[in-house]
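Interim report to the steering committee. The following record documents the input for thiamine diphosphokinase (197 residues).
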Amino acid sequence: MKKNLYFRYKPDVIKGDMDSIRRDVLDFYINLGTKVIDESHDQDTTDLDKCILYIRHSTLNQETSGLQILATGALGGRFDHEAGNLNVLYRYPDTRIVLLSDDCLIQLLPKTHRHEIHIQSSLEGPHCGLIPIGTPSAKTTTSGLQWDLSNTEMRFGGLISTSNLVKEEKITVESDSDLLWTISIKKTGLSIQDHTP
């Protein structure tokens, strides 16, 4: 029965620069048949970046604009790693990538269109935020928040929308710059942790 559980959660691929995986863990997954791609020669991209590229290239026959990726464990820990993972969202704005931790989720809202965010109130909220990173927003407008924005300017060193609250089940966001959307995750007794054999 235990072996079946290992196969149930067996990754198809382990890819990265292999500097943070224990050899016994790597051998364990190799023995289960997991493909390992060592890219230690590439120090210009993060492990998340390498994995996103692998997923995008393996779906070349599909429409990548409809691709959605959930990355767990991408938040928390060292700030430079978090910043690198946030940078990945900006590198692939045509792919919906959600970074998930025990406490929140983060995704990029590209400026290219109006966004409708449907809130699952049993799982997420009420705390949320909209954060412009890289480029200030001259005007951002929202609906469905406790403190909605109306053609509001946001920038680092000025106003950013943190500690806002979800008021409606549907949030709309329009902005002239890319924004990070973040919302808190409710504790359900489950947690995302690094479970190694």
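The chain has a mean pLDDT of 86. The committee is asked to note this result when reviewing the revised timeline.
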